[in-house]
Amino acid sequence: MAAAASSIDRSGALEITQRLTEICGAPFARFAGPADEVAGRAARWVAVPGGPQAAAKVLRLAARHDLTVVPRGAGTKIDWGAAPEQVDIMLDTGRLAGIGHEPVGAPVTEVGAGTPLRAVQATLDRTGQRLAVDAPSPGATLGGVLAAGEAGPLRHRHGTPCDQLVGLRYLTADGELVDAGGGAPGLDLARLLCGSQGALGVLVSATLRVQAVPATRLWVSRPVWTPLEVHDLVRTVLAARLDPAAIELDLPALPRPRRPIDPADPAASARARHPSMAGRADAPSRAGSVVVLLEGGPADAVERAERLVSLIDGALVTHSAPPWWRRYPFGPGDTALRIEVPITDLHAAVYALRDAAGAPVPVRGSAGLGVVHAALPGSLPADRVASILAAVRGVLLARKGRCVVLSAPASVRREVDLWGELTGLPRLRAAKAHLDPHHRLAPGRLPGGD
């Protein structure tokens, strides 16, 4: 298979381009350009089918010519995960978009995979509804969020987007349209497409639960200086049984620029008065935050916020999220990590990462679930990243946790184990063998090189 596309001569390539144009329309099929790549692997063609049937025809064309296909949404996480072995046709899902016309107040809605998440939320908001989905990637499509297994702060109360699925439509590698859920069987198998990076099927649409937009949202924040403080604070919040929508953590890596404390700034004044500030002249510039989101009716949310403030000395209530909310701590070129560990051991994982790296690293994420992200500088050589991963994974293994490399520079991606220990690998391989036995969909993207 790997040599199939490279063996196609110029006339054969033009024929495939013509067939893609017939399927998708003249403006929606072309030879790939410099920006059309997946984790550094360049594509050969780009096809943008106008609907599920056209997408199925693209897959059947690829099967006839033994070509690989990699789906792409908005491309916000196209560099996550392992690089595919080969990208012959990049199947852009941008036209597999739209929102189902459900009755006002319906408990679910069907959304095309190529629909930008912010467009879904804007449409639902007009009827006072929302998806409890707040993935951090700006501009991400719903299909991209599901394919990458992405979730934001609201996962604490509502679960991941995949947890909220009640139905899923997708195409197998041979172009068969599968409708799972909504009374049809196969939803458990379909859920494996979440986080598969397009290696098990091409998402067409998803049906998810919707809910009323909360009348009030309050953020209760408290500065922190050590991972152990985070542990104690999270335990206090959870023990209070205040039904938080999210419990998020931000631990910066480097000291922030020193600024005089403004007496009119209640947040700065609170940090300065906090008992843990004793003897720390520079502590305000180094502080991180634990922030709790409370949602509900006005009176109820305010009452719960007041109770939480009474339990946590130095906590403040605001009506807006902090600037870092729903943002990853890593940027382009960094080695991006996701750490999952029981919340009782989150502080141990952060300390282990700091010790292995030899300095604090930025950590941010859902402290109330033990799922956080961290960033290592892109300038670190691959062998140094590998040693850091080995040390952190050794600590996590004893605590039933794991550390995954989401994205990394090419030199690091080639040399390190992106996944670590994976208990679900046999099930993923069985699904790959069932849905894509010839390994035409994003080959090499799954753990284990499948």
Key traits:
450 residues; 5-stranded mixed beta sheet; 13 helices; globular
Q: In summary, what is this structure?
A:
The chain is an alpha+beta fold. It has 13 helices and 19 strands. An eight-stranded antiparallel beta sheet has the order 15-12-14-13-17-18-16-19, sandwiched between helices. Strands 1, 2, 3, 4 and 5 form a five-stranded mixed beta sheet that branches.
Description:
- The chain has 450 residues and is α+β, with helices and mostly antiparallel strands.
- An eight-stranded antiparallel sheet has the order 15-12-14-13-17-18-16-19, with helices on both faces.
- The two termini are 13 Å apart.
Chart the SSEs and their pairings:
Blueprint: H1 10-24, E1 29-31, E2 37-38, E3 41-47, H2 52-64, E4 69-72, E5 87-92, E6 108-112, H3 117-125, E7 129-130, H4 142-148, H5 155-158, E8 165-171, E9 177-181, H6 187-191, E10 202-209, E11 211-212, E12 216-224, H7 227-239, E13 246-251, H8 266-273, E14 288-296, H9 298-311, E15 316-318, E16 335-340, H10 346-357, E17 363-366, E18 371-376, H11 382-397, E19 402-407, H12 410-415, H13 425-435
Helix pairs in contact: 1-2, 7-10, 10-11
Please compute the radius of gyration using only Cα atoms: 23 Å
Query: Can you tell me the overall shape?
Result: globular
Oligomer: single chain
The percent of residues in helical segments reads 25-40%
Percentage of β-strand residues: 15-25%
> Cα distance, first to last residue?
13 Å
Figure out the total of helices: 13
The low-confidence runs, each spanning 5 or more residues with pLDDT under 50, are 255-259, 274-285
Sheet with most strands: strand arrangement: 15-12-14-13-17-18-16-19
Question: Which sheet architecture does the biggest sheet show?
Answer: 8 strands, antiparallel
What structural category do the secondary elements indicate? alpha+beta
What's the β-strand tally?
19
Mean of the pLDDT scores?
Answer: 91
